[in-house]
Write a structure and sequence with these properties.
- This protein is of the alpha+beta class.
- It has helices spanning 5-26, 51-68, 74-80, 82-102, 109-117, 130-140, 145-167, 173-184, 201-209, 213-234, 244-276, 286-289, 316-325, 357-393, 400-407, and strands at residues 40-44, 47-50, 123-124, 127-128, 186-194, 298-304, 308-309, 313-314, 329-330, 335-337, 340-350, 396-398.
- Helix content is 60%, strand content 13%.
- The strands form 4 sheets. Strands 5, 6, 9, 10 and 11 form a 5-stranded antiparallel β-sheet that branches. A 3-stranded antiparallel β-sheet has the order 2-1-12. A two-stranded antiparallel sheet has the order 3-4.
- The radius of gyration is 30 Å and the shape is flat.
Length: 408
């Protein structure tokens, strides 16, 4: 098992050192709105989460996401559920700190003192400035020193529980090796795609026109509920300002075309596969045998066990099968994605052999990064499950009105 628990614990503690400061600063009530409106977004076991702290946490998450992806915007934040993530983080801070105390963890006066003395916001020329500390707490955070120190104590409790949870995570050498082999093993393949993009345009147009009005009407009658649900799901975006009946007509025709195309593509792919597997067949003559198609071999020189095939999409089942069988040549089964069919030709494999010095040296270089990756993922699972159980027993009320005003 992972024998480096102590070093991992230190790393996790450092990760959450920044959260301690955020936790304290964000818990200030901040600017005040209308006196008649509640200045909180939620109450957790009697402890309010203020609008100011929620806005602070939301902005922290948003800025982090935008730093990773400059195209991340308000729409992306809404789609990713960023608002709920921010709220959940603050809820967990309260619940975890309380649970830490129940479990016997404490935060001494000395620990609180050290945290405050080492907070850069309260320093002048690198040294703690007591008067500056009082001014920031009283006028910027709008709370008394005693209230602030209570928040600091809670932040320490939270960090100690996080540290404890990290110590429960272990990663075996076998798991590290398994991840390395999964990420480092690769195969070189070719594939032929039978998609609407590779069917000759005039043939595809003829296929589309073969769908009759009677077929469309019958399809709508049979699948009206499903088509209506699709319209409802996209009426504010994809189908905005469009008539529901027109959308259902378009959807019905597309789905009928896709179904017809899928059958034609499957038949053509099976014919091509039979030819390609025939002894002595020249693959360059495949186009001549398939008059309705413009097919050409596409290469993927480094297919990994992750499961993504460039130009095709994610298909873990097919990729796992390729690596499990380790069989070279054309696969007997077609790969189907939606209405498309693909022929796969496996050319070679590159599987690391850890008994060889070169492969073992490469593994030794990266194994600790893989160990940390597994540990981080496992810790996230532990954290989520721990928080879920605490929420099940907690009294939590959400002020949807305040929450909506901030995130709209």
């Amino acid at each position: 098992m992972f024998s480096r628990k102590k070093s991992q614990s230190i790393i996790i503690y450092l990760m959450f050192a920044a959260i301690i400061i955020v936790f304290i600063i964000s818990f200030g009530p901040g600017s005040q709105g209308a006196a008649s409106e509640p200045q909180y977004v939620a109450i957790v076991n009697g402890e309010p989460i203020s609008i100011a702290e929620y806005r602070f946490e939301y902005n922290q998450l948003f800025n982090r996401a935008q730093a990773y992806n400059p195209k991340f915007d308000a729409n992306a934040a809404k789609a990713s559920g960023l608002a709920l993530n921010a709220l959940e983080t603050l809820q967990n801070m309260i619940l975890f700190a309380s649970k830490a105390e129940d479990m016997g963890f404490g935060a001494s006066d000395e620990e609180v003192r050290d945290l405050i003395l080492n907070t850069s916001y309260f320093q002048t020329a690198g040294k703690f400035d007591k008067e500056l500390y009082k001014k920031i707490v009283q006028f910027q955070f709008n709370m008394s020193v005693a209230e602030y120190e209570k928040k600091a104590r809670r932040a320490i409790l939270y960090s100690k529980l996080m540290n404890y949870l990290s110590s429960t995570v272990s990663v075996s050498d076998a798991e590290v090796k398994e991840m390395y082999l999964e990420r480092s093993s690769s195969a070189a393949i070719d594939y032929y795609a039978f998609s609407q993009a590779t069917m000759k345009p005039e043939v595809l147009e003829t296929l589309k026109n073969s769908v009759t009005d009677e077929e469309i009407k019958a399809y709508i009658a049979k699948n009206d509920k499903d088509l209506t649900s699709k319209y409802e799901a996209g009426k504010d975006s994809l189908y905005k300002d469009q008539n529901v009946e027109n959308v259902k007509l378009d959807l019905a025709k597309k789905e009928l075309v896709d179904a017809k195309f899928a059958e034609v593509a499957r038949q053509a792919a099976n014919k091509a596969l039979s030819l390609l597997k025939s002894e002595g067949f020249d693959s360059s003559k495949l186009d001549a045998e398939l008059a309705d198609w413009n097919v050409a071999s596409q290469s993927v020189e480094k297919l990994t066990k992750i499961g993504y095939i460039n130009g095709v999409g994610y298909d873990k089942e097919t990729v796992d099968s390729i690596f499990t069988s380790k069989k070279l040549g054309y696969r007997d089964e077609l790969l189907t994605k939606g209405s498309n069919s693909y022929i796969i030709n496996v050319k070679s494999f590159n599987i690391p052999d850890l008994t060889k010095d070169a492969d073992k040296a490469d593994f030794d270089k990266v194994k600790e990064s893989y160990r940390q990756r597994i540990a981080s993922s496992r810790f996230n699972d532990v954290y989520a499950e721990f928080g879920k159980k605490l929420k099940e027993k907690a009294a939590i009320s959400i002020n949807s009105k305040s929450l909506g005003k901030i995130t709209s």
